[in-house]
Design brief:
The protein is mostly helical. The protein folds into 2 domains: 6-221, Cation efflux protein transmembrane domain (Alpha-lytic protease prodomain-like), CATH 1.20.1510; 236-308, no CATH class. It is 63% helix and 8% strand. It has 11 helices and 5 strands, in the order H-H-H-H-E-E-H-H-H-H-H-E-E-H-E-H. It has helices at residues 6-35, 41-52, 55-67, 82-111, 129-158, 161-171, 173-188, 193-221, 236-245, 277-282, 302-308; strands at 119-122, 125-128, 252-259, 262-269, 297-298. Strands 3-4-5 form a 3-stranded antiparallel beta sheet, with helices on one face. A hairpin with a 2-residue loop joins strand 1 and strand 2.
Length: 309
């Protein structure tokens, strides 16, 4: 891509390699967890979370391909928002599954379901399945946590929300593993409720991540001001640009919105909806003139720069 600095391009290339590693490790983790899951609800919930963890890296890799496509007549602003759409879809999947798993945990507690963990034969020896579960959970935690910590600085540098969400999920996987281990040990000591309680704790964490990501992604899809990576707060870039451009354009409004990892700024007649029907008709809108809100001045158009180079 020519519309981003070489340094950012290299950062995204490194992120792509890490995401491929993530997918490979996650597939192996999902297989291991499936075979040692038993009847533990905490294990089932952890397994579902690991399966859901495949969504962000897959969406990231797809959006990277789509966002580099050249603008067309149907999509004149390009496809930079492909990542925004993918971010919303992955966040919605997390939130929905988190809500379902919370319901499932509460349902198990109300029905007072008593899970059991028996023995299995391994190399001719009877082994408590709980030990295999704990070993599987330990394996499920280590690779994602390491990869997540490697992804976080890359996400912040490239301002990629999908990558950032994926990195946060990976880096916090130790909480899922610890909660599930507590639930398994609780079953071993006869605390039947520990398993469902641990599953509920994991589910709440899934729901929290999903809702936070949805809040940020919806703001971007609704042309909201650029948000910070880890919260729905407006990015400091907005105030800096408005403060610098405002004095040079009296009576005009400086507005910023996100387009994927990029930011588009426009200078409009304040309050930005003052384009009359007559003016809209004069520039070719004709009977659709009412739909034309404003004609903006582009401050920087990376798509145009790419096409001219």
């Amino acid at each position: 891509m020519k519309d981003i600095p070489a340094e950012i391009h290299d950062t995204l290339s490194r992120a792509e390699r890490l995401e491929w590693w993530s997918i490979g490790f996650l597939i192996s983790i999902i297989a291991v967890m499936y075979f040692v899951m038993g009847s533990s609800q905490a294990m089932k919930t952890a397994w579902i979370e690991d399966t859901l963890s495949l969504i962000p890296p897959i969406v990231f890799l797809i959006s990277r391909k789509v966002e580099t496509m050249a603008p067309s007549r149907a999509y004149p602003f390009g496809f930079h928002r492909a990542g925004s759409l993918g971010f919303f879809l992955s966040a919605a999947a997390l939130a929905g599954m988190g809500a379902f798993l919370i319901y499932d945990s509460i349902h198990s507690l109300i029905l007072r379901e008593h899970p059991t963990i028996g023995n299995v034969e391994v190399l001719g020896f009877d082994v408590w399945l709980g030990w295999l579960m704990i070993a599987g959970l330990a394996y499920s935690v280590v690779p994602p946590v390491i990869l997540g910590r490697k992804k976080l600085p890359l996400a912040k540098k490239s301002m990629d929300k999908i990558l950032h969400t994926d990195a946060q999920m990976n880096a916090a996987d130790w909480k899922t593993g610890l909660a599930a281990i507590v639930g398994i040990v609780g079953i071993g000591f006869g605390f039947w409720w520990a398993d469902a309680a641990a599953a509920g704790f994991i589910a709440i964490d899934i729901l929290r991540d999903g809702l936070r990501s949805m809040r940020i992604s919806v703001a971007e899809l609704l042309d909201g001001a650029p948000r910070q990576l880890d919260s729905a707060d407006v990015h400091p870039l907005v105030d800096r640009v408005v403060d610098n451009l405002g004095p040079d354009h009296p009576g005009m409004a400086v507005k910023l919105r996100e387009t994927g990892r990029f930011v588009r700024a426009s200078i409009e007649d304040d309050p930005g909806r003052t384009l009359t029907l007559e003016k809209a008709e004069a520039i070719g809108a004709e009977e659709d003139a009412w739909r034309l809100i404003a004609v903006n001045r582009a401050l920087k158009d990376p798509d145009r720069e790419r096409n001219q180079s």
